[in-house]
Design a protein that fits this description.
The protein is α/β, with parallel strands linked by helices. The protein folds into three domains: 189 residues, NAD(P)-binding Rossmann-like Domain (Rossmann fold, 3-Layer(aba) Sandwich), CATH 3.40.50.720; 72 residues, N-(1-d-carboxylethyl)-l-norvaline Dehydrogenase, domain 2; 44 residues. 50% of the residues lie in helices and 11% in strands. The chain has 14 helices and eight strands. An eight-stranded mixed beta sheet has the order 3-2-1-4-5-6-7-8, with helices on both faces. β5, α7 and β6 form a beta-alpha-beta unit. α2 packs across α3. The longest helix has 24 residues.
């Protein structure tokens, strides 16, 4: 198995040019951590110094966890010394060969960042976006170098998930794809190339197909949110860690897949807009963890911090297994 993560690459600084990350929120700070942990000098950019200071505190805490889990080859201080911060975008992206944009999921905000990055960098600089659903061509269209624009969709938390989708825009050059795949491998990620510029790449499309169906099952009273989640976790999740849906299809037999699909597809939810239940929840402020209530009660019932701790502990366990496989 290909290695994933910070240990193997952490102490080799050869051939590693400066990386800039524009937008140092939840994703940007984690992406910066990944590159710094792999030996790259990183500049984190955001709108103000307070956000950048909070990014550094978060990275420092994450590095403590990585160190305690035996997943960091160098001291935390060495990794942190590779990270600089600035609210000045033009200054921050100067002399970089690879810039990753991770600002809000808003077309206008991202277009503005792309224009500024283009003005402040060489023509050869690759501008990658962490967008979840905005087409790459939309962002590439505001630059004069669409061949150097590409999607690099990290998953949350970026320092614990190895998968990254690399999405080719209509005009992205093969050289840009190759260089992006290569740099992601250098930082221990497992890039998957998405050859068509489709919203949601691979993983988000599949996740939202699942969220749409799960919501429909709850909205129609077929099952409770808890039972839907439990079946997905227990019946699907435990197997999906080692077998993807197409491997599962092959194991079942494609003739069986055809027979089931003939009966089932007609009854699956095919809404082309968010369902009424989702609209009702949004209108009544049931936004999930951030307001204390969504499909679950997060105020008096479940504890979000504890849930995130459990998730991260599980992801660290997987990373450690991947490291020991790679070292074997
Ligand atoms: N949150 C997730 O789980 C997740 C997962 C994968 C991809 N993404 C994608 O990653 C991107 C970032 O998401 P996030 O969750 O980190 O958002 P976030 O809100 O946590 O962070 C965005 C940051 O961008 C900064 N910013 C906004 N405009 C800026 C500008 N002009 N210059 C510099 N900084 C600017 C903000 O101050 C903020 O700190 C989005 O495109 C999102 O769709 C998010």
């Amino acid at each position: 198995m290909e290695n994933s993560g910070e240990k193997r690459y952490g102490n080799n600084d050869e051939g590693k040019g400066k990386i800039a990350v524009v937008g140092s929120g939840l994703m940007g700070r984690g992406i910066g951590q990944v590159f710094a942990s792999a030996g790259f000098p990183v500049t984190l950019i955001d709108l103000n110094q307070q956000v950048l200071d909070s990014a550094l505190r978060q990275i420092s805490a994450n590095l403590n966890t990585m160190e305690n889990s035996g997943l960091l080859a160098e001291s935390k201080e060495v990794v942190l010394s590779r990270i600089s911060t600035t609210p000045d975008l033009a200054e921050g992206v100067k002399s970089t060969s690879f810039v990753i944009e991770a600002v809000f999921e808003n077309v206008d905000a991202k277009k503005e960042v792309f224009r500024k990055v283009e003005r402040a960098t060489d023509r050869s600089t690759i501008i990658a976006t962490n967008t979840t659903a905005i087409p790459i061509r939309t962002l590439a269209s505001v630059t004069t170098r669409p061949e150097r624009v590409i999607g690099s969709h990290f998953w949350n938390p970026p320092h614990l998930v190895s998968a990254v989708e690399v999405t080719r825009g209509e005009k992205t050059s093969s050289d840009t794809v190759d260089k992006t795949v290569s740099i992601l491998r250098k930082v221990g990620k497992k890039p998957a190339v998405v050859n068509r510029d489709v919203p949601g790449q691979i993983g988000i499309r599949i996740l939202y197909a699942m969220i749409r169906e799960a919501t429909s099952l709850v909205e129609s009273g077929t099952a409770s949110a808890e039972d839907v989640d439990n079946i997905v976790k227990e019946a699907l999740g435990t197997r999906l860690e080692i077998l993807g849906p197409l491997e599962l299809a092959d194991l079942s037999g494609i003739d069986l897949v055809e027979n089931v699909a003939n009966i089932l597809y007609k009854s699956l939810d095919s809404s082309t807009n968010p369902q009424r239940l989702v609209k009702r929840m949004v209108n009544s402020g049931e936004l999930g963890v951030k307001t204390g209530k969504g499909f679950y009660d997060w105020k008096d019932g479940r504890n979000a911090q504890e849930t995130i701790r459990e998730r991260d502990a599980h992801l660290i366990k997987i990373l450690k297994e991947q490291h020991s496989d790679a070292d074997a």
